[in-house]
């Protein structure tokens, strides 16, 4: 066997060298694509964390990590069957039985209000709110109130939920609000005159608008919460293998799917994709920072339109009007 192996090596040295270099190169690219890792050892014993959409993807992996740190974790999800199964898995993997499920449909403002009422009645504190749930590149759907689905779920639902829980977050200070945005915000624009994209709906255009709204919301919220001990963070988690692309993938031409499928090996796993969310939720050095944008467990400069304070205030006023906040 050894003789045959030695013979093969001497017979095909270039092939072996090429395969070796390619393998090492792919491994290096994959490690680079994985991005930063949260190194904080912070404990969350006695703390309460609420994660929207925590039944799958990076939300679930975030829940596992924070539960391991000792937090009481609330998974706020639309599909209760899947949420209960996810909660059981989070309990097993984290060794923490204090993981509970509550109903939340971000496409219904009534559901958002009901969850907020439930949390305020059942929880004495709320230390970290992670607005993680989202929808990407879906058809032209509407929320229960008639808002365009991506703007309604990704921004308006979280806007209302956050405002309803602000007093509890202030009471629990120092506390944090983490908004999961996307690099897509760089291509986004807030269409104040056509916020529901009725004149020209394009899935990616709408998604980018909603992710820019996350960044602007984080910025304006930070300004309004100065001196309260509540800090805010927005982030890009990376390109990740999750269910978020379930509406986008089937619309791609077959040849693109064939080309992209092998590249799936290189993109982030949900555990890798959750690292920046975890970082923003627990990293001690961020306690006095607020309103900033992060990627790969480090602060990054948001796109120019994400730094527009005037647009952030205008978006706040529009959002408050749309969800009925006075």
Written account of the structure:
This is Retinol dehydrogenase 13-like. One of its GO terms (molecular function) is oxidoreductase activity. Pfam families: adh_short. Keywords: Oxidoreductase. It comes from Seriola lalandi dorsalis. With 326 residues, this protein is an alpha/beta fold. The protein has one domain: Rossmann fold (3-Layer(aba) Sandwich), CATH 3.40.50.720. It is built from eleven helices and eight strands. The protein has helices at 2-11, 13-34, 57-68, 80-94, 109-122, 149-171, 203-224, 254-260, 270-273, 275-282, 309-323; strands at 48-52, 72-77, 99-103, 128-131, 175-180, 230-236, 292-295, 298-300. Strands 3-2-1-4-5-6-7-8 form an eight-stranded mixed beta sheet, sandwiched between helices. Strand 2 (72-77), helix 4 and strand 3 (99-103) form a beta-alpha-beta unit. Helix 5 packs parallel to helix 6. It is globular and about 80 Å long. Residues 22-34 have low confidence and may be disordered.
**Side-by-side strand order of the widest sheet:** 3-2-1-4-5-6-7-8
What structural class should be given to the helix and strand makeup?
A: alpha/beta
Count of all domains: 1
Largest sheet: 8 strands, mixed
**Number of β-strand runs:** 8
CATH homolog superfamily? NAD(P)-binding Rossmann-like Domain
Which spans of ≥5 residues are poorly predicted at pLDDT below 50? Answer: 22-34
Secondary structure: helix percent: 40-55%
Helices and strands, in N-to-C order? HHEHEHEHEHEHEHHHEEH
Mean pLDDT value: 89
As a whole number of angstroms, the C-alpha radius of gyration is 22 Å
From the spread of the alpha carbons, the general shape counts as globular
- The CATH class label is Alpha Beta
Distance between the termini: 79 Å
CATH architecture: 3-Layer(aba) Sandwich
**Fraction of residues in β-strands:** 5-15%
In the CATH scheme, what's the topology name?
Rossmann fold
Number of helical elements: 11
Family: Belongs to the short-chain dehydrogenases/reductases (SDR) family.
InterPro entries: NAD(P)-bd_dom_sf (IPR036291), SDR_fam (IPR002347)
GO molecular function: oxidoreductase activity
Pfam family, one: adh_short
């Amino acid at each position: 066997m050894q003789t045959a192996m030695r013979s093969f090596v001497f017979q095909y040295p270039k092939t072996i060298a090429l395969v070796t270099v390619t393998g090492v190169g792919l491994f290096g690219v994959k490690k680079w694509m994985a991005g930063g890792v949260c190194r904080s050892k912070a404990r969350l014993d006695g703390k309460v964390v609420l994660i929207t959409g925590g039944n799958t993807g990076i939300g679930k992996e975030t829940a596992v990590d924070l539960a391991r740190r000792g937090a009481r974790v609330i998974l706020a999800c639309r599909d209760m069957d899947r949420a209960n199964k996810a909660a059981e898995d989070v309990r097993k993997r984290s060794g923490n039985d204090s993981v509970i499920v509550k109903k939340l449909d971000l496409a219904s403002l009534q559901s958002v209000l009901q969850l907020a009422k439930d949390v305020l009645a059942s929880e004495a504190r709320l230390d970290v709110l992670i607005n993680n749930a989202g929808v990407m590149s879906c058809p032209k759907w509407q929320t229960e109130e008639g808002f365009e689905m991506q703007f309604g779920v990704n921004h308006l639902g979280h806007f209302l939920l956050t405002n309803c829980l602000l007093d509890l977050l202030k009471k629990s200070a120092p506390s944090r609000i983490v908004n999961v945005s996307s690099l897509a915000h760089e291509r986004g624009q807030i269409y104040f005159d056509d916020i529901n994209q009725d004149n020209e709906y394009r899935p990616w255009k709408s998604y980018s608008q909603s992710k820019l709204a996350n960044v602007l919301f984080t910025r304006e919220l930070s300004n309004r919460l100065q001196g309260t001990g509540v800090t805010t963070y927005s982030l890009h988690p990376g390109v990740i293998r999750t269910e978020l692309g379930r509406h986008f993938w089937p619309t791609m031409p077959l040849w693109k799917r064939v080309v992209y499928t092998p590249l799936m090996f290189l993109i982030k796993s949900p555990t890798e994709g959750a690292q920046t969310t975890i970082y923003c939720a627990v990293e001690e050095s961020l306690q006095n920072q607020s309103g900033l944008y992060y990627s790969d467990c480090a602060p990054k400069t948001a796109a120019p339109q994400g730094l527009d304070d005037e647009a952030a205030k205008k978006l706040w006023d529009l959002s408050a009007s749309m969800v009925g906040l006075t």
